[in-house]
Amino acid sequence: MYWSKTFIPTLKDAPQEAESESHKLLLRAGMIRMLMAGVYSYLPLGYRALMNIQDIIRQEMQASGAAEVLLPALQPLELWQRSGRDKDIGEVMIRFTDRKGRKICLGPTHEEVITDLVRQQVSSYKQLPVVLYQIQTKFRDELRPRFGLVRGCEFIMKDAYSFDRDEQGLDKNYQLIFAAYERIFKRCGLGVLSVEADSGVMGGSVSHEFMVPAQEGEDNVLFCAVCHKGFPAKENAALNCSKCKGKLEKVSTLEVGHIFKLGTKYSSVLGANFVDAQGKMQPIIMGCYGIGVSRLISAVVEQNHDANGIIWPMEVAPYKVIILPLDITEPKIMEQANNLHARLEGAGVTVLLDDRDERAGVKFKDADLLGINLQLVIGKQFLKDGTLELKERGKEEKNAVTAEGVLEKIRAALHG
Amino acid sequence: MYWSKTFIPTLKDAPQEAESESHKLLLRAGMIRMLMAGVYSYLPLGYRALMNIQDIIRQEMQASGAAEVLLPALQPLELWQRSGRDKDIGEVMIRFTDRKGRKICLGPTHEEVITDLVRQQVSSYKQLPVVLYQIQTKFRDELRPRFGLVRGCEFIMKDAYSFDRDEQGLDKNYQLIFAAYERIFKRCGLGVLSVEADSGVMGGSVSHEFMVPAQEGEDNVLFCAVCHKGFPAKENAALNCSKCKGKLEKVSTLEVGHIFKLGTKYSSVLGANFVDAQGKMQPIIMGCYGIGVSRLISAVVEQNHDANGIIWPMEVAPYKVIILPLDITEPKIMEQANNLHARLEGAGVTVLLDDRDERAGVKFKDADLLGINLQLVIGKQFLKDGTLELKERGKEEKNAVTAEGVLEKIRAALHG
Question: Are the C-beta atoms of B415 and B373 separated by less than 8 Å?
Answer without folding.
Answer: no
